[in-house]
């Protein structure tokens, strides 16, 4: 039977199997009614057996099917748990990464410490949530919020808020962020005990303790507009527990939210708006008016600009933000917290920017001054735009000082003092002019800075003057050199006129006392040389030995304005002593130097010098006259005296008038005092002029 | 839904608002149980219900005694939404609490979107006349400006306690009767008008 059955199976399942043909074949083998009947019985028995077999098979499969189905449902819940676990891990990782990048290391470590004990708690939470998932139908999405955990749960009786009658039993889950209400699931005898009804957000859920509701005791209310739901607890302590849990959860959520808001606000205020506004409605009300993105991101943007040294852009943005804030102030009346927050931040950035710019201008020994003032232009301009012109001006001038100093140091003292002075004064005043130009360019519309500039320039000038005095006014320096130097500096100083800065007065003032001293020294020196010459003088007419010599000498003196033709005798003689002529020459040099140096302050000194020197010479002739026994010699001496007192003095007065504008009184006095000499009277006694003779002889 | 054959009397929902410590709970307890509670314990949010006789009519008063301090604006809004009339309470001995009433008034108007919501300005602690900081005139002027009555009460001596609750309930009742009378269409119109007004504001 078994083998035939096997064959049959194959036969039946063949593609070209035909039932009619098969039956015909079978019935052909059995002949007669009895045999056929037997065969029929046999077939029936087989069919019965097959039927049973099939039934058994199906039953077996069915058990397996149910087992598999159960397995699958288990697997499903496990998968949910897994996905939940993964999402939590992901959230954990993302917070870790964000903290490690953005936060300080100290904050980070604190965070980590806080997190470690949390891990166990989290595991626990997950398990709790998983069990809820198994118990409550239709709450899958609800449990997929990361960070949500169960605080409290329990069965409560819902009461009709108006009629005070019992409605139904509910099971309520209190999570850290909301309340889930579930109803009893009457259809299922399995694991799903409850059906999800609703979820309330904790931040909008008003919990009211029902103190007195007639016959209803131990109840509390949940107010969620437009619903009012009353729940009755099993006991007073149970109700107290519920209310306490609600209160605690709300409080912890509030502190958590505040922390989050603070930390987020610190990281980026822009995110505060975008993240928080959708989930808490009262935030939106506080924000009032949404700020454009560029505004909320401006502090970061400023950081970037400054870091990349795009200062112009930073300043422009700063201005834009300020304008926006002002505008918003006038529109809103009172500022909202984002506005003030950003305002505060932007102010910080502005201070930072100012610092950076100021550093840019700061004088630093390591920094090259290659770019010169041109390099400072940018920073100065930006600082001016930021309203920090006072600082900018201060730093700019400091920079100028240091530049001036280095420039001066580069000028080496080589060759004569005049060359050096020419060089250094040119450097100083050229720089000063450039700096004035730059300054006027940078601070043209800031009159308050101009005074700072004037003070600075005068300080620099006095520094230069002291340096100049040290270099030029040395005892061995001849007056003519000093004069040259002073004239050089003066002309340089006049260059500053173009910028409206007249420092000549200060220069003159600074040079007055050294010049006076120099004049006195020169005077004394000249008197000394007069004395020396007096000792050697033989009082004879000068013999120039050749015609060429004499014509040259005549030319020389006529250039001074003193024609000597009348004094020439013979071919090579001049009827004036050599010492007189030498004195005349020196005196004219002195005279010209004095006039070059002259300022109204120095006139008196100059007069005095000229007078004293001239008088010393006259005195000396007078003295010689007095001691001269020879009449012929006396005549010659008188001629010399007359030459000096008339010809020379007249010429001196001419020159004096030319320079000063009037004739010198002291020299006139000299002429008057010694008029006797010009008249050919030889002084016999010393009575009248004692003091001079005692002074100089 | 109700299985009882006799329907519950109509409920008037009253909300107590005001800064912390002005005596909201004290007024409520005095009204409910004729007792004065001396020691102060901050309220979170308590609700009371009582059957009373208002001008010969059985009614229920539902009092929601709110917390002076509530951190979530959304929750505060939910309290206010559930109310039909408001007792805005301040202490006459504390100017700050009087100033705070302005804010409460604004919040209520915003939430209820109705300028004529039954509302009473209540100056509590009028037994402490010697410590008075807010003058009667000052408070009356504010009430006048809002178009609401001003009453001074003392939860301690029970002065005017019943009056404020009953006056408010009368206003609520009048409001409800008005609303029943006016057709739905007109009611809608009214609310629309108010909404528009609000927007302009």
UniProtKB/TrEMBL annotation, chain A:
The keyword Transport applies. GO terms for cellular component: exocyst; growth cone; perinuclear region of cytoplasm. It comes from the Eukaryota. It holds the Pfam family Exo84_C. Gene3D superfamilies: Exo84p, C-terminal helical domain, Exo84p, N-terminal helical domain, Pleckstrin-homology domain (PH domain)/Phosphotyrosine-binding domain (PTB). Residues 270-281 have a biased composition (Polar residues). Keywords: Exocytosis, Protein transport, Transport. The keyword Protein transport applies. It is found in: Cell projection, Growth cone; Cytoplasm, Perinuclear region. Residues 253-282 are annotated as: Disordered. PROSITE patterns: PH_DOMAIN. CDD domains: PH_RalBD_exo84. Residues 149-251 form the PH domain. InterPro entries: Cullin_repeat-like_dom_sf, Exo84, Exo84_C, Exo84_C_1, Exo84_C_2, PH-like_dom_sf, PH_domain, SOS1_NGEF_PH. Residues 258-269 have a biased composition (Basic and acidic residues). GO terms for biological process: exocytosis; Golgi to plasma membrane transport; protein transport. Coiled coil: none annotated. Component of the exocyst complex involved in the docking of exocytic vesicles with fusion sites on the plasma membrane. Belongs to the EXO84 family. This is Exocyst complex component 8.
TrEMBL record, chain B:
It is a lipid-anchor. Residues 189-201 have a biased composition (Basic residues). CDD domains: RalA_RalB. One of its GO terms (biological process) is signal transduction. SMART domains: RAB, RAN, RAS, RHO. GO terms for cellular component: plasma membrane. GO terms for molecular function: G protein activity; GTP binding. Its main location: membrane. It is an enzyme of class 3 (hydrolase). Keywords: Cell membrane, GTP-binding, Hydrolase, Lipoprotein, Membrane, Methylation, Nucleotide-binding, Prenylation. The keyword Nucleotide-binding applies. Signal peptide: none annotated. The keyword Lipoprotein applies. It is found in: Cell membrane. Its EC number is 3.6.5.2. Residues 177-201 are annotated as: Disordered. It holds the Pfam family Ras. Belongs to the small GTPase superfamily. Ras family. This is small monomeric GTPase. It comes from Acanthoscelides obtectus.
């Amino acid at each position: 039977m078994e083998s035939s059955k096997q064959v049959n199976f194959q036969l039946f399942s063949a593609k070209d199997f035909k039932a009619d043909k098969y039956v015909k074949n079978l019935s052909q083998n059995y002949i007669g009614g009895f045999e056929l009947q037997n065969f029929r019985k046999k077939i029936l028995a087989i069919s019965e057996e097959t039927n049973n077999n099939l039934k058994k098979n199906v039953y077996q499969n069915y058990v397996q099917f149910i087992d598999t189905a159960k397995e699958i449902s288990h697997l499903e819940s496990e998968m949910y748990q897994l996905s939940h676990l993964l999402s939590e891990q992901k959230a954990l990782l993302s917070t870790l990464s964000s903290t490690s990048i953005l936060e300080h290391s100290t904050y980070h470590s604190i965070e980590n410490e806080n997190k470690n004990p949390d891990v166990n708690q989290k595991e626990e939470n997950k398990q709790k949530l998983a069990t809820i998932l198994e118990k409550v139908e239709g709450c899958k999405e609800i449990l997929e919020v990361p960070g949500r955990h169960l605080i409290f749960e329990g069965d409560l009786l819902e009461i009709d808020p108006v009629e005070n009658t019992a409605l139904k039993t509910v099971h309520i889950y209190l999570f850290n962020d909301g309340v889930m209400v579930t109803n009893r699931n009457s259809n299922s005898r399995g694991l799903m005990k409850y059906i999800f009804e609703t979820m309330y957000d904790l931040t909008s859920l008003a919990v009211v303790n029902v103190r007195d509701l007639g016959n209803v005791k131990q109840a509390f209310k949940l107010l969620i507009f437009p619903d009012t739901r009353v729940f009755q607890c099993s006991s007073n302590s149970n109700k107290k527990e519920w209310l306490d849990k609600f209160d605690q959860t709300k409080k912890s959520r509030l502190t958590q939210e505040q922390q989050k808001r603070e930390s987020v606000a610190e990281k980026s205020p822009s995110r505060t708006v975008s993240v928080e506004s959708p989930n808490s409605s009262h935030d939106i009300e506080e924000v009032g008016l949404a700020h454009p993105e560029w505004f909320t991101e401006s502090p970061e943007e400023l950081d970037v600009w400054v870091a990349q040294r795009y200062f112009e852009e930073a300043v422009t943005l700063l201005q834009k933000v300020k304008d926006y804030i002002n505008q918003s102030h006038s529109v809103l009346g009172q500022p909202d917290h984002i506005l003030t927050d950003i305002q505060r931040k932007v102010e910080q950035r502005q201070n930072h920017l100012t610092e950076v710019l100021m550093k840019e201008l700061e004088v630093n020994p390591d920094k090259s001054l290659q770019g010169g003032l041109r390099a400072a232009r940018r920073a100065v301009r930006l600082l001016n735009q930021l309203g920090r012109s006072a600082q900018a001006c201060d730093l700019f001038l400091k920079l100028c000082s240091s530049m001036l100093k280095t420039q001066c140091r580069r000028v080496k003292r080589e060759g004569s003092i005049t060359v050096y002075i020419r060089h250094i004064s040119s450097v100083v005043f050229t720089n000063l002019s450039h700096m004035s130009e730059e300054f006027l360019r940078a601070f043209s519309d800031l009159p308050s800075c101009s005074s700072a500039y004037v003070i600075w320039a005068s300080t620099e000038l006095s520094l230069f003057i002291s340096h100049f005095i040290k270099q030029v006014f040395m005892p061995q320096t001849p007056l003519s050199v000093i004069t040259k130097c002073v004239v050089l500096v003066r002309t340089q100083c006049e260059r500053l006129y173009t910028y409206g800065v007249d420092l000549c007065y200060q220069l003159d003032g600074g040079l007055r006392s050294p010049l006076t001293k120099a004049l006195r020294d020169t005077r004394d020196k000249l008197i000394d040389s007069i004395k020396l010459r007096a000792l050697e003088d033989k009082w004879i007419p000068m013999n120039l030995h050749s015609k060429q010599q004499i014509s040259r000498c005549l030319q020389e003196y006529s250039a001074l304005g003193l024609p000597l033709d009348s004094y020439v005798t013979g071919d090579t003689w001049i009827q004036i002593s050599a010492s007189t002529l030498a004195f005349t020459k020196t005196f004219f040099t002195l005279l010209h130097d004095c006039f070059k140096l002259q300022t109204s302050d120095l006139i008196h000194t100059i007069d005095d010098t000229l007078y004293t020197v001239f008088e010393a010479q006259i005195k000396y002739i007078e003295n010689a006259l007095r001691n001269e026994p020879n009449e012929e010699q006396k005549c010659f001496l008188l001629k010399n005296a007359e030459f000096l007192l008339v010809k020379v003095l007249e010429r001196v007065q001419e020159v004096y008038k030319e320079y000063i504008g009037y004739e010198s009184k002291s020299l006139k006095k000299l002429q008057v005092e010694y008029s006797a000499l010009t008249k050919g009277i030889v002084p016999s006694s010393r009575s009248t002029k004692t003091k001079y003779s005692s002074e100089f002889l | 839904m109700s299985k009882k054959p006799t329907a519950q009397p109509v409920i008037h929902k009253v909300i107590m608002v005001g800064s912390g410590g002005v005596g909201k709970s004290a007024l409520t307890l005095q009204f409910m149980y004729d007792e004065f509670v001396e020691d102060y314990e901050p309220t979170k949010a308590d609700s009371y219900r009582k059957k009373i006789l208002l001008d010969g009519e059985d009614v229920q008063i539902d009092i929601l005694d709110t917390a002076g301090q509530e951190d979530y604006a959304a929750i505060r809004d939910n309290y206010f939404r559930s109310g039909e009339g408001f007792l805005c309470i301040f202490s006459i001995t504390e100017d700050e609490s009087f100033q705070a009433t302005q804010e409460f008034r604004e919040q209520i108007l915003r939430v209820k979107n109705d300028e004529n919501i039954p509302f009473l300005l209540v100056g509590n602690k009028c037994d402490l006349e010697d410590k008075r900081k807010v003058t009667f005139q000052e408070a009356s002027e504010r009430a006048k400006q809002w178009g609401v009555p001003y009453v001074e009460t003392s939860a301690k001596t029970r002065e005017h306690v019943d009056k404020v609750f009953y006056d408010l309930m009368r206003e609520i009742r009048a409001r409800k009767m008005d609303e029943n009378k006016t057709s739905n269409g007109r009611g809608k119109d009214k609310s629309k008008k108010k909404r528009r007004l609000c927007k302009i504001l």
